[in-house]
Design brief:
Number of strands: 2
Protein name: GPR180-like N-terminal domain-containing protein
Shape: extended
Order of helices and strands: EEH
Strand order of the largest sheet: 1-2
Number of domains: 1
Radius of gyration: 19 Å
Number of helices: 1
Pfam family, one: TMEM145_N
Strand content: 5-15%
InterPro entries: GPR180-like_N, GPR180/TMEM145
Structural class: mainly beta
Largest sheet: 2 strands, antiparallel
Length: 106
């Protein structure tokens, strides 16, 4: 029994795109080498995901390299926003928005 499902886009494989790995295309990963070191293989992954929800949610993100005994070396940036069309609410979570703008302070 698997906890996460590739068919439901719950697993995003961070590697170059191949037709054998279904979820890899969604990662936007490309292999590259640093200028000073042509021996080390890096992956630069740039892409976006859209999640639609009618209520606030908690999101959990995990990274893993099952084939390594040395762990992972990575740099990352994750930006999660609300409705893209509404500049005012874009970066506020539901609890921040309610606290700052809807509930009166005594």
């Amino acid at each position: 029994h698997k906890i996460l499902d590739n068919d439901n886009n719950q697993v995003i494989t961070l590697a170059n795109y191949t037709t054998e790995i279904k979820a890899t295309h969604a990662s936007g990963c490309k292999e590259y080498h640093e200028d000073y070191d042509n021996l080390t293989v890096w992956y630069r992954c740039t892409h976006y995901r859209k999640f639609h929800s009618y209520r606030e949610r908690w999101w959990f993100i995990a990274l893993d390299n099952c084939n390594s005994t040395k762990g992972l070396k990575l740099r990352y940036k994750i930006t999660m926003t609300n409705n893209v069309n509404d500049g005012w609410l874009r970066h506020f979570s539901a609890d921040e928005f309610c606290e700052r703008f809807l509930l009166p302070k005594n």
